[in-house]
Amino acid sequence: MIHKSETGKRSHFLTAQFQIPDAPAADEVLVAIGAADSSRAHPRLADRFQDMEEMKRELETA
Q1: Full-prediction pTM beyond 0.70?
Q2: Angle of CA points 7, 8, 13, to nearest 5°
Q3: How confident is the model over 25-37, as pLDDT tens digits?
Q4: Whole-angstrom Cα distance, residue 18 to residue 29?
Q5: How far apart are CA 26 and CA 23, in angstroms?
Q6: Which residue blocks in the chain are alpha helix, DSSP H?
Q7: 43 pLDDT band (50/70/90 cuts)?
Q8: Which of 14, 58, 12, 59 has the alpha carbon at shortest distance from 38?
């Protein structure tokens, strides 16, 4: 999951892994929906896009 309007914010990055043992069959479709009303309990810091800009500048000066 990511933040709905600020995709670079790491506070809302969340991955869930689950299994459904008997689905989907050949003629079925599995739809999984996730939602949250706040960020992670222990959010990651910084912004992904800001990190990419810093990496780009480091490469340019190297």
Answers
A1: no
A2: 75
A3: 889 998 888 887 7
A4: 16
A5: 9
A6: 48-61
A7: low
A8: 12
